[in-house]
Write a structure and sequence with these properties.
The chain is mostly helical. Among the domains are: 126 residues, no CATH class; 148 residues, Methane Monooxygenase Hydroxylase, Chain G, domain 1, CATH 1.20.58. Helix 15 packs antiparallel against helix 16 and helix 16 runs antiparallel to helix 17. It is flat and about 150 Å long. It starts with a helix and ends with a helix.
Length: 700
């Protein structure tokens, strides 16, 4: 621990009797001083002793340092001597090695011809046995030496192949170059390989395969291996899973048996594709190709998907340099007969299926789909009929049916979605945008034209004339459903079509086609705006039936108990229902546009309606109450212009009850100051007391 003088003094004083107040002892400074003096003397003695010891150790250290330096110098000299000896030894070893290499080359030059001569002598000996027709050597008679025999036969066969045919006949060694011993031995080796494979002896298989590598029958050996690998491998219903498991198992084994495992595995995969898979695909597709297009397309998509998934799994194995191209060619060889005309089958099925869905729906409604003209004359007749009351033919009674079905739309979109998925998977990349556009055209034809457009045309033809009583305005229901359906159509366009055409010239073509469809529908929806005429007509009928002249000129001015007229209550109730219906049927800016148009027409109707009556003082008050209720109804439109119009109308109605002396003041108010004086005059003229000279004088 580090030395602290203060603590050391404290401990010394604490141990000295009389040095502190412990135990009740009195403090004795003399005794403490004496103790300090004695302790200082002890420390001085100890310091001198330690100093002498330090000096002694320093002298000893200097002596040992000199001895160590001397020893290091001696070792350096010894090291230099050893290094010189090592260099000399290295030069000597290099000299000897050179001599040994030279001697080895000389020995090899002598030994190689000798070995060749020995081998040639052995071959000549075996050649003589073939000439004599008796194979006596142990290598030919001992079945355990089939490897050595194969090597000999292979060499003799090569020699025989180089000799002319006449020489072979002269030497009677024709069996060496024909299906003789060579082929017999080759068959024995293949048989041995087959037996070893059945027994699961990998080492023996590897040994025999190495021998057969130099024989012509090596490829037959590979074929036998591939054939036996597949025995019992395809027992389940899922041929693709069986193929994946088989290839995974063979991939682990083939490297232990053959020197070229990637070639063997590739040949196995090729055999599986060209035999097993091709046969399976053909059985699954040919059955439905002409009889059931739906099942055919489903099977084609499923089989192609499972085949490509299998190909992805096989990509993990070593199949050579360009395995992607290899597997793609195998898949193409299987499916090319079916993919060439895929899109024609797809379009034909989609067309018939969509037509069937629509026809089934119309049949369920007991509706015979009629041809509705969309040309100039028909449009002109419709517009004249709806904007006037001329009887140009009756409107079509749809009995409240919109002829739009969510179920039909979902079915059509589902069929198209599946078609897009099949198109993405089965089409060639270069044909994908073109094929996707054809499918999109089918969707446009049957969903947009044959279903939505037909419903809009039927709805337009079913709009009643403005003078019809109790007319049911089903066209807004058509608009509502058409709007919902088109949102679904637009979602499928973005989710399923756009990814297929986003990077091709077909994108602009599809967008233009979609734009044309929207514009065509908007034209029909704009034509349907004349539904507002029917609404205004209904309001006219209500006002004509419910409003009485005595409402605004009661017989007893002092006995009026109602807050507003019955006609006002019914009109406001009707308007609120129509506003809610419009909001539910449309979205976006279309809602505001239609409500503004309806609000302006509603104001015009009430304005003209009020002009038809004369007003007493109490009747004018009742008219103001009616207009206040109309203004409250106008607030539901949430259109500033409409509310402003009714505010002005309410201010005009004040002219019906204001005192004659205040007329000029009211007319110069904020809401009436900018109005034409004729309008103000027309309202003042509605007063019962207008003929009085006082009122005429004040207003003039």
């Amino acid at each position: 621990e580090p030395f602290v003088a203060d603590e050391y003094i404290e401990r010394l004083a604490w141990r000295t009797p009389g040095g502190g107040s412990r135990g009740g002892e009195a403090f004795d400074p003399k005794r403490l001083l004496e103790e300090f003096v004695n302790h200082i003397q002890e420390l001085q003695v100890m310091d001198e002793r330690i100093q002498r010891k330090v000096e002694k150790l320093e002298q000893q250290c200097q002596k040992e340092a000199k001895e160590f330096a001397k020893k290091v110098q001696e070792l350096q000299k010894s090291n230099q001597v050893a290094f010189q000896h090592f260099q000399e030894l290295d030069e000597h070893i290099s000299y000897v090695a050179t001599k040994v290499c030279h001697l080895g080359d000389q020995l090899e030059g002598v030994n190689t011809p000798r070995q060749r001569a020995v081998e040639a002598q052995k071959l000549m000996k075996y050649f003589n046995e073939f000439l004599d027709g008796e194979l006596k050597s142990d290598v030919f008679t001992n079945s355990e030496k089939i490897k050595e025999a194969a090597d000999i036969i292979q060499k003799l066969h090569l020699i025989a192949q180089e000799l002319p045919f006449d020489s072979l006949m002269d030497f009677c060694c024709y069996p060496l170059s024909s299906p003789g011993k060579y082929h017999d031995l080759e068959c024995q080796l293949i048989q041995e390989f087959t037996s070893a494979q059945r027994r699961g002896e990998i080492s023996r298989m590897r040994e025999v395969a190495a021998v057969l590598l130099h024989f012509k029958g090596y490829s037959h050996c590979v074929d036998v291996y591939i054939k036996q690998c597949q025995e019992g491998a395809f027992l389940r219903n899922d041929v693709f899973e069986d193929a994946a498991i088989l290839c995974q198992r063979v991939n682990k084994q083939v490297g232990e048996v053959f020197s070229n495992p990637e070639t063997v595995l590739a040949k196995l995969i090729q055999n599986i594709f060209e035999v097993k898979l091709q046969s399976y695909v053909k059985d699954q597709l040919e059955e439905y190709r002409k009889s059931d297009a739906e099942q055919y397309l489903k099977n084609l998509y499923d089989l192609y998907t499972r085949t490509t998934n299998l190909s992805s799994k096989l990509m993990e194995f070593n199949l050579g340099t360009d395995k992607q191209t290899f597997l793609s060619k195998l898949i193409k060889s299987i499916f090319i007969p079916y993919l060439e005309n895929y899109i024609e089958v797809e379009i034909g099925y989609l067309k018939s299926r969509s037509a069937m869905i629509l026809q089934r729906y119309y049949d369920s409604k007991n509706h015979q789909k009629r041809s509705i003209g969309t040309g100039g004359i028909q449009d002109l007749k419709e517009r004249i009929r709806q904007r006037t009351n001329l009887p140009l033919g009756p409107s079509i009674d749809t009995h409240g049916e919109t002829f739009l079905s969510q179920e039909v739309v979902v079915n059509l979109l589902q069929e198209t979605k599946q078609a897009f998925e099949r198109c993405h998977r089965l089409s060639d990349p270069s044909d994908l945008p073109k094929n996707a556009f054809r499918i999109f055209s089918m969707l446009v034809e049957f969903l947009c034209t044959e279903h939505i457009d037909y419903a809009l045309e039927t709805g337009l033809a079913g709009i009643p004339s403005s003078d019809s009583k109790n007319a049911n305005l089903y066209f807004l229901d058509v608009v509502h459903q058409a709007n919902t359906i088109f949102h679904l159509f637009d979602k499928q366009f973005n989710d399923h079509l756009m990814p297929l055409i986003s990077s091709s010239p077909k994108l602009s073509e599809c967008l233009q086609k979609k734009k044309d469809i929207i514009e065509q529908m908007e034209v029909k929806l704009d034509m349907g705006i004349d539904t507002l005429n029917c609404m205004i007509g209904q309001m006219k009928h209500i006002l004509a039936a419910e409003q009485k002249k005595t409402d605004f000129k009661p017989e007893d001015e002092n006995n009026v108990l109602i807050q507003y007229t019955n006609a006002c209550v019914k009109v406001c109730g009707y308007v609120r229902k129509q506003v809610e219906k419009i909001r539910n049927s449309m979205d976006g800016k279309n809602v505001d546009t239609v409500l503004m148009e309806l609000g302006v027409r509603f104001h015009r109707l009430i304005y003209e309606h009020l002009q038809q009556y004369s007003y007493s003082c109490m009747g004018g008050m009742l008219a103001i109450c009616d207009v206040a209720e109309y203004r409250k109804c106008a607030k539901d439109f949430k259109i500033a212009l409409v509310l402003q119009l009714f505010d002005t109308l309410h201010a005009l109605c004040n002219l019906l009850v204001v005192a004659p002396d205040n007329l000029k003041q009211v007319c110069s108010g904020e809401q009436l100051a900018n109005l034409d004086k004729n309008i103000l005059h027309s309202f003042v003229q509605l007063r019962v007391d207008y003929r009085s000279a006082r009122l005429a004088r004040h207003f003039s």
